[in-house]
Amino acid sequence: MAPEETKEKNILDSIIYKYASSDNGQIDDENRILKETVNKLREELDKLKSPPLMVCEVRDVYEKTAIVSIPNGNQFLVQISEGCEKLKPGEMVIAEQKNLTIIKKISAARQFNVERFVIVGKPTVTWKDIGGLDKQVGEIIEVVELPLKKPELFKKVGIKPPKGILLYGPPGTGKTLLAKAVAESTDSTFIEIVAAELVQKFIGEGAKLVKEIFEMARNKAPAIIFIDELDALAAKRMEIGTSGEREVNRTFMQLLAEIDGFKPLDNVKIIGATNRKDILDPAVIRPGRLDRLINISLPSQEAREEIFKIHTRNMSLDKDVNIKEIAKKMDNFSGAEINAVCTEAGYFAIRTDRIKVTNKDFLDAIEKVRQEETLEGEDYMGMFG
Ligand code: ATP
C-alpha cells in the first residue's frame, strides 16, 4: 500500500474508533440513567405498597418487651425489635401495625400547637356589659379578681382564696360573659376550652392536651382558664367500661392533677361552667379545687330590664318603648334570648324602612323568639321519639 493510502486508512480507523467508542459511552450513560430511574421507581413502589406504621406511647418497659398505648387508649404488651434504642416510659415509638412490634423511637414527643385547639385572647367584655348579676359579679371580684390583683393582701391576712370557681345555671345566662369580664378586669389571658370538644375531637390526646393547656396558662399568666360544658368531662360515671369512657376519665384525672398542682395564689385561675351541676363528679368541686359554686339563674324582671338596657344602648328607640312591659313579656327568657329579641326588633324596623325601633317591634320580636325556642324544643324532643 502506498504511504498516502496507509496514512488515509489510519486516519479513517482513528475516526471510526473515536465514533464507535463515543457511541458506546453514550449507550453506557443512557443505560446507567435508565437503571437509576428503574431503581428509584421500584423504591417508590415499595413505599406505596408498605403498610403504615403506628405511633404509640411507651407505658412500661421490660427486658425485651414493653407496654404501649395506642391512640384509642388501649394498651398492649409488645416485643421490642433488635435494633431499637433503649426505651423509657412516656416516649413515643413507631410500631408494626399487625403485631405492634416496636421498630424505633421517635425523638420528640408529639407536640400540639395548643393555641390551635383552644381560644386564647384578651377579651373586651367589661362588668358594664353584664346586667342583673350584681351579687355574682361581687363574688367573682372577691374570689378571682382580688387574689390576682392583690395577692399580698391574702398573705397578710393569712387566708387562701379558691383556686377556681364553678358557674352553674341554664344556657345563655352570662357564664361565659362573667369569665371574660374578670379576665378583662385583671388583664389576664383568657383561655377557653369546650370540654365536650376536648373529649370528642382529641381521642387519646385529651390528657396531654390538658397538661399543655395548663403549661401555656402558666407561661401566659396571669391567666383565666375557662372550661365550658365541664360536665362533658367531669360527669359522674357509674362504671368505666368502654375505651372511650376510660379516655374521658384519664383526661378528667389529668385536669384534677393540674388543679392540685398549683397553689391558690398562683396567678392562674380556673372557671368551670355547666348547665348540669347535678351530674358533676363531686371530685371536681372538692375543697382545694373548684370549691366556690356560683349559681347563675334566669334573670328576674329587674334583671331583664337591666339586660335589655345594655343590649339597646346603641339602638335608636322610639319614645313609645316601654321597658317594663317588654321585660315582663320576656318572662323566663335568658340573657341570650333578650339579646336575640333586641336584634330581631331592629330587623322589624329595617324591613319597614324605619330607623327608630318601636314598642311593637319588640313585642313582635318576643313572639318570634318564643316561637323559635318552642320549635327548637320540639325538634329536640323529636330526636328522642
Ligand atoms: P352557655 O351555657 O350556653 O355557654 P352562657 O351562660 O355561657 O351560655 P353567655 O355565652 O355568657 O351564656 O351569653 C350569651 C349571650 O347572651 C352573651 O353574649 C350576651 O349577649 C347575652 N347575655 C347573657 N346573659 C347576659 C347578661 N346577664 N347581661 C347581658 N347580656 C347577657
Q: Give the overall shape.
A: elongated
Q: What's the total helix number?
A: 12
- Class by SSE composition: alpha/beta
- Beta-strand content estimate: 15-25%
Radius of gyration: 34 Å
Can you say what the CATH homologous superfamily of the largest domain is?
A: P-loop containing nucleotide triphosphate hydrolases
CATH architecture of the largest domain: 3-Layer(aba) Sandwich
- As a percent range, the share of helical residues equals 40-55%
What hetero molecules are in the model?
adenosine-5'-triphosphate
What's the rounded overall pLDDT mean? 84
CATH class categorisation of the largest domain = Alpha Beta
In words, what does this structure look like?
It contains twelve helices and eleven strands. Strand 1 (54-61) and strand 2 form a beta hairpin. The protein starts with a helix and ends with a helix. The longest helix has 47 residues, at 3-49. Strands 6-8-9-10-7-11 form a six-stranded mixed β-sheet. With 385 residues, the protein is α/β, with parallel strands linked by helices. Helix 2 packs parallel to helix 4 (175-185), helix 9 crosses helix 10 (323-329) and helix 11 packs across helix 12. The chain has four domains: 1-50; 53-106, OB fold (Dihydrolipoamide Acetyltransferase, E2P); 114-295, 3-Layer(aba) Sandwich (Rossmann fold), CATH 3.40.50; 301-382, Helicase, Ruva Protein, domain 3 (Orthogonal Bundle), CATH 1.10.8.60. Bound molecules: adenosine-5'-triphosphate. Residues 130-133, 171-177, 228, 273, 275, 307, 310, 335-336, 339 line the site of adenosine-5'-triphosphate.
